[in-house]
Amino acid sequence: MLDHILALSQSAVVTAGIILLPILTAALVVGLLVGIFQATTQIQEMTLSFLPKLVVIGLIFYLAGPWFLRVLIGFTTQDLSSLWHLANLP
């Protein structure tokens, strides 16, 4: 029982990492580029750092959304089937 819970927790963390990695990487790269741009031009506008990240994250969700959904459906299917097998143990 404890092994099942640990495996499920590990699978949940790996799935969350798989889904969040492209989003966080894109936000990091855009934030770095905007920071370099702000440092070179000495423009300290807060919306200049926020809006490009928001646009890029929205674009990532739009382009990779179906893939994210397939990963989450696969995790949920695996989770529910393993939970079903665990509940039917003698």
State the main characteristics:
elongated; 2 helices; mainly alpha; 90 residues
Explain this structure.
The chain starts with a helix and ends with a helix. With 90 residues, the protein is an all-alpha fold. It is 91% helix and 0% strand. Helix 1 (2-41) packs antiparallel against helix 2. It has one domain (2-87). The radius of gyration is 20 Å and the shape is elongated. It is built from two helices and no strands.
Compute the CA-based radius of gyration. Answer: 20 Å
Helix content: over 70%
Helix and strand pattern:
HH
For the report, how would you describe the main beta sheet?
A: none
By DSSP, the count of extended strands is 0
Number of domains: 1
- State which percent range the strand residues make up: under 5%
Question: Poorly predicted ranges (pLDDT <50, ≥5 residues)?
Answer: none
**Average pLDDT:** 89
Multimeric state of these chains? single chain
Number of distinct helices:
2
Q: Choose one word for the global shape.
A: elongated
Would you kindly provide a brief summary of this structure?
By secondary structure, the chain is mainly alpha-helical. The chain is built from two helices and no strands. The relative contact order is 0.13.
